[in-house]
TrEMBL record, chain A:
GO terms for molecular function: iron ion binding; oxidoreductase activity. It comes from the Bacteria. This is Xanthine dehydrogenase family protein molybdopterin-binding subunit. PANTHER family: ALDEHYDE OXIDASE 1-RELATED (PTHR11908:SF132), XANTHINE DEHYDROGENASE (PTHR11908). Residues 11-115 form the Aldehyde oxidase/xanthine dehydrogenase a/b hammerhead domain. The lineage of its organism: Bacteria, Bacillati, Actinomycetota, Actinomycetes, Streptosporangiales. Keywords: Molybdenum, Oxidoreductase. It comes from Nonomuraea turkmeniaca. InterPro entries: Ald_Oxase/Xan_DH_a/b, Ald_Oxase/Xan_DH_a/b_sf, Ald_Oxase/xanthine_DH-like, AldOxase/xan_DH_MoCoBD1, AldOxase/xan_DH_MoCoBD2, AldOxase/xan_DH_Mopterin-bd_sf.
UniProtKB/TrEMBL annotation, chain B:
It comes from Nonomuraea turkmeniaca. Residues 1-219 form the FAD-binding PCMH-type domain. GO terms for molecular function: FAD binding; oxidoreductase activity. It comes from the Bacteria. Keywords: Oxidoreductase. Pfam families: CO_deh_flav_C, FAD_binding_5. This is Xanthine dehydrogenase family protein subunit M. InterPro entries: CO_DH_flav_C, CO_DH_flav_C_dom_sf, Diverse_Substr_Oxidored, FAD-bd_PCMH, FAD-bd_PCMH-like_sf, FAD-bd_PCMH_sub1, FAD-bd_PCMH_sub2, Mopterin_DH_FAD-bd.
Length: 676, 322
């Protein structure tokens, strides 16, 4: 089945947030802080206000009315305090984008700067233990005696890995178009991963009842987490439109996206592992150090995969956070699992070498009966199956574990493996299904951010109804539709699909329409550990002349329940693995220690993989029957593809060269300085 | 973006006549338009020279004359270039992307600006963009910046691949301007930053590049190699253009130019002199590379470029040795 919206996308007819034709539209362009910490003493808009086409300038000099408990990143122009460089501190509104930008440039801001601190360190005096980590896991867990486990181990490792600031970088920049009607109702065309939650947040921020706000987001050009929560551009558009009495469009530049739409926190992760003579873990400790802003606490759940992955009598996980003069980090491509599994799966490889065991075998030996931290049974767990199938397909049995001995000319060749894991959750959702003119119409405020959600839901509805997919029409991307959770956490299809199935089932009973709300159903879900698993294998070539790393083969084997649509699933897995390749070898945003904020804020400097970087990539999945997940028996696949890729590549680099590069990304600079 | 006026030049002399303060020539616009959007370049007038009849590649005796407005894609695909100067075709094809090369011109490629993060960000200081404001790259983000010929005022690199090959080929840049016509031999077009990093080249105000002329290809085998962490669409960490002519086991001719290491394409004259007349051996190449890089002054985060350039010189020359 092809994507149902394929034709409108390839013909350019799909309408994205910034593209809705609106009469009398005006444009807003933000002014950003040029200091990282301190106070705005004066915003002088006098010259800007005299410029052609300018309709107004909003700033802290005349703070727009907002809810008092608005989120710190959304409480625009409420305080003179500057929390980070790049923060939005004013906005100019004009009849054209160019005039708005020129006016924004003409706004004079005076500051009283203070000393800033933008550097994450594992010995930072400001580190503390957050109450919970994203979304609501305990920050620390401890079971058994880690020190004793390490003391009795036959092989131990104690290693520290770091990951840099990374940015989501969807293709479509964040944009919003806000229109108020005469009754004080607000319509926002927004680029968002969830219209229901976006409506709630915008309404709450503006102090409006949710019923007065509507968010429409029919097509979204990628999100990867940075459109999962309401971003300041949407509030900016609403405030500006209210102030000038005209519709206002805000389209962020790529550089502004780096500043105000979230990023992955840098991490410092210390892993201590011990194994007995048989390779069974005696202790596992994972401690993650991360940052957040002074405005909002966002604590990434980086060490949580260790609570899921391996059997061990002693397990300790901990998160420490420091609040710096930086923007607030947020969700990005498998928050928690992605950086955490990079470190854990790299450490497992190091332990395999320390214990003299094959890295696949080490993981197999430590596969747990029940979820290690919670003790809950797994709804299904096929990590061992993925490892075995991947090893067979990859030719792992022919692998000589000796590092640094295979060579093709100047290229050192190596292979590596890592496990993948991602929770299989679902959340309450509503949906409606009706029959009209012999066709079936399904409504749910889901979001299709390029994943193919519209297509997957069409298929789910058609299979439930027992009709051909072309008789099913799914409407999504509008908060006026039945409430639905955000496209995030790899739970979109599971959540929306559950509601769509129930609505379709009801329709079949009464023959005309069905309405579903899965809140009750989900509340009675049995207590089980629900996760998708996978295994990734990488082959790399590392030039001993240049330190360049090229990934010649990538294989992912996944066990993620019932796969709803093979073509969409393959794209998602490959996309995730490609992002993992980027994380391993190139993605990095530099923090500007001197001035604050970020450097390299464009796609010419922040490198994501090009087609030429992906030489051979293969994805397969195991057939997994798991009735206890949801009516489809599916596990989310949006994020597991990126989990483990960087570790597999890093482990392959070690196998090729004998070098452990423990600081991502693995660049020619690091290889050359370590080896040559 | 600042409002500007746009005009098409009718001829090279018309373009020069239109030159003056606040006037910039527009080629393919692949770099200049970006810089205008960033506020880095703020011309009052753009004089479009991309449609001037300077888009031919012509044989002139045993030389090759490449018009300044020839698009990068056309240059790389030209049969004469591919047959006689394959190193140049390779260098051009290693730069940017197909779409960018379709737009970018030869002169524009030579005159593109550094991609230093500070230069491209008007909210931060940069001596090249705002003379006297300082160079934060020296203590900051300089991983991709210069190790050779840098100054305390500027550590920017010139980003072109094509210019590196042209430097190795002894290309001549033909210029017309208010002061008349002149010929500038490569790599002399680009200058080192010294205490005037705002000047990338030796061109005077109003100068217009009309052509690049290549002398007959030097005897021997040639290669262009570019090192980057992303396999495509990335600027060079270090690149090399090299020619080696070995006769009876001895080096009769050698040319080496490096990219990504300096404010200009870096012709490794010291290495060339050390190699010419000697044996074509890895030891000789290594000694020559080390002699060349002796004057490198790396910064903490770009020190890798020194061993990288050394390895690249040695390996490339070894591969060119019959």
């Amino acid at each position: 089945m092809n994507r149902v919206e394929a034709r409108v996308k390839v013909t350019g007819l799909a309408t994205y947030a910034a593209e809705y034709p609106v009469e009398g539209v005006t444009y807003a362009y933000p002014v950003q802080s040029r200091i990282a910490k301190g106070r705005v003493t004066r915003v002088d808009a006098s010259r800007a206000l005299t410029m052609p086409g300018v309709l107004g300038v909003l700033s802290v000099e005349d703070p727009p009315e907002l809810a008092e408990d608005a989120d710190g990143e959304l409480a625009l122009f409420q305080s003179r305090d500057v929390a980070y460089r790049g923060q939005l501190i004013a906005v100019a509104v004009a009849d054209t984008y160019e005039n708005a930008r020129a006016a924004a440039d003409a706004v004079r801001v005076s500051y009283e700067p203070a000393d800033h601190d933008v550097g994450l360190r594992a010995d930072h005096p400001g580190l503390y233990r957050p109450e919970v980590v994203n979304p609501d896991y305990p920050a620390d867990t401890e079971r058994g005696d880690v020190e004793a486990g390490l003391a009795e181990a036959a092989a131990t490792i104690d290693v520290t890995y770091t990951t840099p600031v990374e940015h989501n970088n969807p293709m479509e920049p964040h944009a919003a178009l806000a229109l108020w009607d005469g009754d004080g109702r607000l319509l926002v065309y927004d680029s968002t991963q969830g219209t229901s939650s976006d409506r709630e947040t915008i309404a709450k921020t503006l102090g409006l009842p949710a019923s007065h706000v509507r968010v429409v987001s029919r097509h979204v050009g990628g999100g990867f987490g940075c459109k999962g929560s309401t971003r300041p551009h949407a509030v900016l558009a609403a405030l500006a439109a209210r102030a000038v009495g005209r519709p206002v469009k805000v389209a962020l530049t790529r550089q502004q996206m780096f500043d105000v739409t979230g990023y992955r926190t840098p991490t410092i992760q210390r892993l201590r592992l011990g194994a007995d003579a048989d390779g069974r873990l005696t202790a596992l400790e994972h401690v993650a150090y991360e940052q957040s802003s002074t405005l909002v606490e966002f604590a990434e759940q980086t060490a949580t995969p260790a609570r899921v992955m391996y059997a061990t009598p002693a397990l300790r996980t901990a998160h420490r956070l420091v609040r710096l003069d930086v923007a607030t980090p947020s969700w990005m491509r498998a928050p928690g699992e992605c950086p955490g599994m990079y470190a854990l799966e790299s450490a497992m490889d190091e332990l395999a070498y320390a214990a003299g065991l094959d890295p696949v075998e080490l993981r197999v030996r430590n596969d747990p009966e029940t979820e290690p931290e919670s003790g809950l049974p797994f709804s299904s767990r096929n990590l061992v199956g993925c490892l075995r199938e991947g090893a067979r397909r990859f030719g792992w049995d022919r692998r000589d574990p000796e590092p640094g001995v295979r060579r093709e000319g100047e290229w050192l060749v190596g292979t590596g493996v890592a496990a993948s894991s991602y929770p299989a959750r679902r959340r309450p959702s509503k949906a409606a299904a009706t029959v009209r003119d012999g066709d079936f119409h399904v409504q749910v405020a889901a979001a299709d951010i390029g994943t193919g959600a519209r297509t997957a839901l069409t298929r789910i509805a058609a299979e439930t109804l027992g009709v051909a997919p072309d008789r099913v029409h799914v409407e999504l991307g509008d908060s006026d539709l039945p409430d639905a959770p955000v496209a995030g956490g790899s739970m979109g299809t599971a959540s929306w699909g559950s509601a769509v199935v129930r609505a379709c089932e009801e329709l079949m009973k009464n023959g005309s329409e069905g309405h579903a709300d899965t809140t009750g159903e989900i509340a009675t879900d049995s207590r089980l550990a629900r996760h998708a698993f996978g295994a990734q294998f990488a082959e790399v070539r590392v030039s001993e002349v240049t330190g360049e790393v090229r990934v010649s083969r990538l294989l992912g084997v996944f066990a993620a329940g019932h796969i709803v649509d093979a073509k969409l699933a393959r794209s998602q897995f490959i996309g995730g693995m490609t992002m993992g390749l980027g994380m391993a070898l190139m993605e990095e945003t530099h923090t500007d220690e001197e001035f604050g904020g970020f450097l390299r804020r464009d796609l010419a400097q922040y490198h994501v993989p090009a087609c030429a970087d992906v030489q051979h990539i293969e994805v397969v999945w195991l057939d997994e029957q798991d009735e206890r997940l949801n009516p489809m028996g599916s596990k989310g696949i949006g994020e597991i593809g990126i989990v483990g890729t960087a570790a597999a590549i890093g482990n392959a680099v070690h196998h090729a060269t004998g070098l452990r590069v423990r600081n991502l990304p693995i660049t020619p600079a690091k290889i050359l300085m370590a080896r040559f | 973006m600042k409002t500007f006026e746009y005009a098409r030049a009718a001829s090279p002399s018309d373009a020069v006549r239109r030159s003056g303060p606040g006037v910039m020539y527009l080629g393919g616009g692949t770099n200049l338009v970006d810089l205008m959007r960033l506020g880095v370049a703020q011309p009052d007038h753009l004089v479009d020279v991309s449609r001037l009849p300077l888009d031919a590649i012509e044989q002139a005796g045993d030389r090759l004359r490449i018009g300044a407005a020839v698009r990068n894609s056309d240059l790389a695909a030209d049969p004469l270039v591919r047959a006689r100067y394959p190193m140049l075709a390779r260098a051009v094809l290693s730069g940017a992307s197909g779409q960018v090369r379709n737009m970018a011109t030869v002169a524009g490629n030579l005159l593109q600006r550094t991609r230093c993060a500070y230069f491209q960000d008007v909210s931060r200081p940069c001596n090249k963009r705002r003379p006297g404001s300082g160079c934060p790259a020296i203590d900051g983000d300089h991983e991709n910046l210069a190790v050779l010929g840098r100054s305390d005022a500027c550590v920017a690199t010139h980003p072109s691949d094509m210019a590196v090959a042209l430097a190795a080929l002894d290309a001549e840049v033909h210029v017309t301007g208010p002061g008349g016509d002149r010929i500038i031999p490569m790599p002399g077009l680009h200058r080192l930053p010294g205490d005037a990093p705002e000047r990338d080249t030796v061109l005077e105000p109003g100068d217009l590049i009309t052509a690049v002329e290549l002398p007959p290809p030097p005897p021997g085998a040639s290669a262009y190699r570019k090192v980057r962490e992303r396999a495509s669409f990335a600027f060079a960490l270090v690149s090399i253009a090299a020619v080696l002519d070995v006769r009876d086991g001895a080096v009769a001719g050698c040319r080496v130019a490096l990219g990504g290491v300096a404010h200009a394409p870096w012709r490794a004259g010291r290495a060339e002199q050390a190699i010419i007349g000697g044996p074509a051996t890895g030891e000789a190449f290594l000694a020559a590379a080390e002699a060349e890089l002796d004057e490198a002054r790396p910064l903490p985060r770009n020190a890798f470029k020194v061993p990288l350039a050394r390895n690249l010189i040695v390996r490339t020359l070894e591969e060119l040795t019959p």
